[in-house]
Amino acid sequence: MSFMNKLAAWGLASCGMVALISSCSANSSQDKYSGTGGGIAEAGDDVTDASAGSGGSSTDSSTDGLFVTDGSLTDVVNETPINICGSECGNTELCDPQHLGYDDNCNGQVDEGCPCTPGLSHWCFKGDPASRNKGACKDGVQKCGETGTWGPCIGGFHADAIDNCLNQNIPQGCHDLSVAPFTTVHLKDGTGTFGQGATGESFEVTCPSSIPPANCPHVQEPNSPNATYTPLQLGQYEVLYSKDDGAGGKATCTFSLYVGATGLRVELNWDHQGEGRAGTDSEGKPNGTFGPDLDLHVHKPGVQTKWFMNPLQPMAPQDDCYYANCTASNFAIAMPMMAAPKWFFDDAYPHNWTYRLPYNPNDPIYTCYQAPRGAGDEWRVFKKGCHNPRLDLDNVVCDNTKTDPQDPDFCAPENVNIDEPPFGLWTRIGVHYYGHCYAGDLHPTVTIYCAGAQVAQLGPTGYNAPVTFKASDCQGDDSNNNAFWMVADVMAVEGPCGDTECIVQPIFGDLATKTPYIKPAIYAKGNYGAPCAPAGDAGIGCF
Known about the structure:
The structure is a single chain. By secondary structure, the protein is mainly β. The chain has helices at residues 3-10, 375-382, 521-524, and strands at 66-67, 121-124, 140-143, 177-179, 185-186, 200-206, 228-229, 235-244, 250-259, 264-270, 278-280, 286-290, 293-299, 320-321, 353-354, 386-387, 390-393, 414-418, 426-435, 444-450, 453-458, 483-494, 500-510, 515-520. It is globular and about 65 Å long.
């Protein structure tokens, strides 16, 4: 099979990005609660200019650690498709990579009947492909269903007969807004001329369906023209605006808030946040917050080394980005026992710090500067931009009655970013059931974005059953018997339009039964897990 066809089988995005990302057009072991590496390059801290599974079993199976592949990638050949990024209305829906995401036959459906890998996602655009990214037009998201075909195109603003985005451009009335995550948005900005003359007004925001209710922030000052909203996760949010017109009447309009970011972004949510075991303060007294506590881990690209840090080997490579070494405080002072990861370069892509000259702390590329609960202020102190990689938010315990994302007890998701992902190397994602053990089952969800476009949502889908951490998968805080889910490998590649795209390889404990790859934490502390897949012409893959 050709390389391009293999990418199609993986659900590789072609030419597409979501809000804020320019793209080609259709025409072209420490106690966590007490507070208490080698790699691609020996990198320092110099500032550089940069452009910007069903849980439970820990036993091995006979087909341990297999990936979704359709053969060896050693037979990859170079191909240059005709009309790489172009498309137009035709008679047939096309499933090849350069047409993935387009409504090729302009029937209001996208990639109907085209094959894909369950759990993966892709941008999509309905109507004339030539209208994509023009004016007010915005991509939606299609998800690969359990039957192995693409589902409907959800969200976005399209050129089909229903949405007809080309006739909108930038409307004078209510209109869509595009922002980076963590940005505090003044919702009045989306009402345009429609909001003029209002004698009373209110705002409601609906989060994307992928965000659990406990992780969905509420509008602050919702019944005021000063209403604000701070989205913590990527996706399309819907805003309902209501006003009194001053003459005894009421009127409403809706608009979308598109939240996007550059590079590779991984978000972790799980159910039952803010339930179960109570958290404690510095004196060991209950503080009103609750677990359970899951942790997001992102492994250094291209190297097959063990997870976590080893306090007995303080000079060992720090190849795992997670709560113990990857938040802003870890980069303030070099501590041998808690060394922060230095995976990349000072003066070449990918940089250790994403930075642009002239330096402007309000530059939107510095998404980490807006991180809630004080984390953004910690990153700003360095005046170096945002580090690659970094953990913006670590959710230990929370109070699910809190609705303000700036509240330190808000049930925030965990997310890790690599704004400048290396090309051609696999980056592995893991989820650790750290502790605050819950009495019932937990269901984690990992959502992966590449250049702002959702490329996978694993956990609820992609396996023989939703990925589940059972009560028996947690034996105590940081117990070696707690579950560690190795989720997927992700590789950034340069797409045919010169933009950043990603290949996602879900990891299975048993390919035949599509079970997730879940091991005890002690295994991950000494092993990488299943070998990463070969990459062929896509890159090195792993060393």
